[in-house]
Amino acid sequence: MTDLTPNAIERILRNNYLGHLAYLWQGKPHVIPFTYYFDPTDNTIISYTSEGHKIDAMRANKSVAVQVEQVQSISNWESVMLQGTFEEIRGSSAKQKLHLFTEGVKDIIRRKENREVGFINEFSSKSSANGIPVVFQIKILEMSGKRRKK
Which InterPro entries does this UniProt record tie to the protein (predicted)? Predict the structure, then answer.
């Protein structure tokens, strides 16, 4: 196993849109799959969700982790771990971030999966009951990664 370079870490983040989000809820760690977009201009992970325990937990304890992987086989994989801080985005900034998220994920799907998606609900189904999503970003504080290739 070898460490990934910062460039390799960024490549993995830029070329994927599915990862795992880790946070604490009522003193217990939770890890869930989530859809994200990496914004290299401000070194953040952008996502959105509906109201619920995940948002309540991240509002209460802003320290989170994100894991993204590319697995070819048991002996050929790359994995990135990020440590960061949850930040809720509101107002016009939320609309801008959600647009960036949507267009970024659609571009990755177009490039990697060779298919077109027209709407956000084709790759992510989270929204609140009143139709207003909770948009958030994770400010990346630390990045690390490992590679195994035989």
Answer: Pyridox_Oxase-rel, Split_barrel_FMN-bd
